[in-house]
């Protein structure tokens, strides 16, 4: 993973997380150790580094394959590595480094609110993400004062990776959720905690055609 190159962006710290060479992230313990170790090194520059918000946007998608093949097992494991493990690792960062009234956000999936034919690994992993967020959102689960834990559930995020996965012919990209809309909403929650949903909540986000494809956030749980 490389640092963002956008000249308008300013990073306080960047922690590189190497994958397992096959598009996954290796074991959960290895991923978490790497993340926490990187933050400990950052402490050398900023003593007792802490955060107002921890946002986990890591994830991936792939369809299911023939359920009788070994590739089926590989696809499920890969989806767990790419979608669930980063949220678990980030939750430990939140538990140890969030400031009072801090915000922890993960990316779930609207599709995982129902059965997910042809992408069982993806649905399983994202449903597990929802469970993690709902559990951590319960009072007293995180050892900090008054945190907000929530997940944003897009239909499809408009990212380069997702565009590469779907052919441009016949795909309505306007119906996909823009990442800028999600970032803007999270930014509002950081600046004004009164605008946040309740802790443990799941929020669907989708472009509303009648509103000029403006992103709409709806509480589902």
Number of helices: 5
Number of strands: 7
Main pleated sheet: 5 strands, mixed
User: Termini separation (Å)?
Assistant: 33 Å
Please describe what this structure looks like.
The chain is an alpha/beta fold. It has 5 helices and 7 strands, in the order H-E-H-E-H-E-E-H-E-H-E-E. It has helices spanning 28-42, 70-97, 120-136, 160-165, 179-191, and strands spanning 51-56, 98-107, 148-154, 157-158, 177-178, 201-208, 214-219. A 5-stranded mixed sheet has the order 1-2-3-6-7, sandwiched between helices. A two-stranded parallel sheet has the order 4-5. Helix 1 (28-42) runs parallel beside helix 2 (70-97). The relative contact order is 0.12. Mean pLDDT is 87; it is low at 1-7.
In short:
The chain has 221 residues and is α/β, with parallel strands linked by helices.
Set out the fold topology:
Layout: H1 28-42, E1 51-56, H2 70-97, E2 98-107, H3 120-136, E3 148-154, E4 157-158, H4 160-165, E5 177-178, H5 179-191, E6 201-208, E7 214-219
Parallel strand pairs: 1-2, 2-3, 3-6, 4-5
Antiparallel strand pairs: 6-7
Q: What brief labels describe this structure?
A:
single chain; 221 residues; alpha/beta; five-stranded mixed beta sheet; two-stranded parallel sheet; 7 strands; 36% helix; globular
